[in-house]
Amino acid sequence: MLNKETQDLIALKVQADRAYYNSDQVIMSDAEYDSIKEKLRSTLLDPQDVMTVGMLPEAGLTTVTHKTPMLSLRVDRNRDEKGAIDFDARVSKAIGKIAIGKRHYVLEHKADGMAVCLRYINGILSQASTRGDGINGEDITANILLVKSIPKTIDVYRYGNDIELCGEIVCFKTDFTAYNIDCLRQDKSVAASQRSLAVRLIRTRNLTDEVVKYLEKLNFYLYTVPDNEGIIGKQCFHSDRLKFSEFSNLIVSTGDSIEALNDQINFMLRHKPSQQIDCDGLVLKVDHTNAQKALGSTAEYPNWAVVFKYPAVSDASKILDVEYNVGRTGVISATAILSPVSLRGSVVERVNLAYGSNTFDNLGLGIGMEVDICLAGDVIPKIHGVRSRPSGSYKRYTYPTNCHCCGAPLARSKGIGLVYCNNGFDCDEKALSILKYFVSKKGLNIKGLSDSGVELLFNRSDVRTYVDFFNLSLSLLTGLFGQKNGTTIYDSIQEAKECTPQSLLSALSIPSLSATLADYSDQSIFATGKINCFKGLKEFLTCFKNGSPLPFFTKINYNRIKMFLSEPNVTAALEELAEVSDSNLPPLLPFNGKTFLLVGDFEFSTKEELEEVLTLAGGIVIEGTPSIGQHITYIVHGVRTRPSLLKYLKNNYKDSIILAENTKEADLFEAFGITVPEDWE
Fold first, then answer.
1. What is the Cα gyration radius of the chain?
2. Of the residues 147, 440, 527, 659, which has the maximum number of CB atoms within 10 A of its CB?
């Protein structure tokens, strides 16, 4: 009969396994999990009862039995920097009498991804499965076939007729970031780590276009090639089998000097290399396959390999308080105030709880609670888990139901449970965030006006909505910010009146609009050069007011924008901005920003006549000989232009549009007042 402490440890491990492998969640640190396993190992008479590795196959999914068990790896607990030397001593003691020559070793990165098994029959990828519990896994063939880095066929002569290749599926850091950005735009649950994203993509049965896009970008790294009748399977060294295959591998180095390898391991553990893939340690393996067989394995892990984990960049801290703030899109974010803790030379006292309200509530954070602080991506501090809770009752934090700034009721979205304040410009904190973004570099880029400057104008009530920036006088700005900086701000605001419709609309902090504009900037109501920015805003508002169909908006984005426009004073603020007088603006001309080069002899008009018309239409006519590589939008040549000159222009200005005087492209000029003879083709 197991005592209560052991039962509790088993329950904790099972809970952590299910959360990590089946639910894509981390509920405890690696150190805490390893500590539980060690305690169970020393307590149970038959530890393998609870030492099954990997994820349990989900109900309803096809189960695959591995030809050879996929084992876990033993983690080195030595802290005196002699782990590799001690491992070599154990190997020497176990196989010292076996005549295999020198004890060769291979050092590999340990990728923190998803272990999978690929089975090739007659050279064709016939089945793929997860590691599962080491004996049985899930059939993931349909998803694996979409991963471009995995060959769908291999050479039978090299690998044999039936072989299982084991390796790690990983996600690159750039793809992980891009995926989470897409999720936030669509109000979906983000991936907690690169590993969790790989698991999510490989195990999903909902193969949408978006899932397929990121599935294709996953990467596979081979770490095991078993004995087989192919020429690769007959290699005596494990490292040679990996190197001779067409699959990527994670080999760091090989050698027979255990002292040199020990020094290399210790150096790398102190200076973790920066990589696109997420690695959580180094694996030292006996390289000779005969020696591996002689050493054998336990029910849990092989005796011929050991893992050296990178030190966890984490430490304990206590929660002192939780603060809330409103972002420009209305999202309420929470920040935990912590007792100071040093991580990699930086003192961390605040952690952004950017999880959404669902995860936030599940953590059950409260004053006095001891939590584990780590650096996500080795940079951003986050709460990794709860170490201990205060005894007795404690104040537990949950997301508020009303805005802490304006008191308005908050709305909670589906998915990860983002909480919004939808009180528009009536919420001072949200309004200030909107206005700061409006004039920032990502907005209208008003030079000289910092966040503190916007706060000053806002607190003085000089600026409360968008349009107020355009009504600021030069005397007011120079009085507040000095003659030079005030003039810079004023001039930059006047220049902003000539921005494109896309720039203005993107600066307004309208949810989901920036991404839509980036993808559909050529749509008529957004097209640069067809309408000025204020008329573009007016047409945009008219579309939503009349319920006009906008096919390039998704339903989610359309509804978000519509909700934003329904907030107090938002539509009124936008309509005021749309009415900004543009009487002092230059006329919107068809060739604004376009450059022209006129070459050759013209038959139906002179260069001077064309130059005058193009200039009046906003074009810039280049005088003299342009430099090679200079950007030229249109090159217009007369009918009697030398062929050698035309050839030179086509070869050196490949991005330019070359128009002949007597071609149908002349319609372009005719539309803007250039007389074209009727007999032109």
1. 33
2. 147
